[in-house]
Amino acid sequence: MEHSNKKAYIKGLETGIPIGLGYFAVSFALGIQAKKFGISAFQSALMSFGLHASAGQYIFITLFGAGTAVLLMVLMELVANSRYLLMSCSLSQKIPENTSLWKRLIMGYFITDEIFGAAIAVKGKLNPFYIFGMATVASPGWVVGTALGVIMGDVLSKDIVSALSVGLFGMFIAIIIPEAKKNKVVSVVIVISFVASYLASIIPAFKGKSYEGIKIIILTVIIAGIFAVVKPVKEGQNE
Predict the structure, then answer these.
(1) Whole-angstrom Cα distance, residue 115 to residue 175?
(2) Which tens digit of pLDDT belongs to each residue from 156-198?
(3) What are phi and psi of 7, to 5 degrees?
(4) Can you tell me the distance from the alpha carbon of 145 to that of 166, in angstroms, rounded to the nearest whole number?
(5) For residue 214, what is the DSSP state?
(6) Is 155 exposed, middle or buried (0-12, 13-18, 19+ CB in 10 A)?
(7) Separation CA 133–CA 77 (nearest Å)
(8) pLDDT digits (tens, 9 = 90+) for 4-19
(9) pLDDT tens digits, residue range 113-130?
(10) Other C-beta atoms within 10 Å of 210: how many?
């Protein structure tokens, strides 16, 4: 078991390297934004370690700068990051039933879009140490990037930061494409999800980062629900 955990952890470290690099670029831009509202490097790093969510942190920085009440900020964060509840529920079906509570809590704490995407693509049961390995690299990239964004300010141009951030999207696509090639149902779901997400983004009622969490949850429940009925996963198919 110890050898298996070590192997999964090392594999997670390898997978986490491009995630961490992508996070560094994105969080650097967040740090620049935080600096504009007087948030220190330490406070920004603490914020990043506590949230691990770009949209959620952008909302917090904006609301903080506007002097919004703490209770309202908490409620907005709950809405913006509510999609992670669905991700946690999904991953709970992939880990062994005897997984201890402390492992489940750590997994839940470090779940992000990219870590979830890499973890859910694992065939069969998921060893929690795979996520631990990814988090070991990805989380520091996010935290350090935010702090350096505050410290260095506008040393890097917005065009460079934007270009670096594209790498994160490329990495996420690299996670889902192989699975789409193997399974036609998955490929159809991905295409429909992209189209539905775009259509939802141009609907006035769903515009704004504060609605990202709600939009993702609604689309996930509807699309996943439809395909769960039309193309259900047979018992034991994930093993």
Answers:
(1) 10
(2) 666 766 666 665 566 567 667 777 777 788 888 888 988 988 8
(3) -65, -45
(4) 16
(5) H
(6) exposed
(7) 26
(8) 899 999 999 999 998 8
(9) 889 989 988 888 999 999
(10) 18
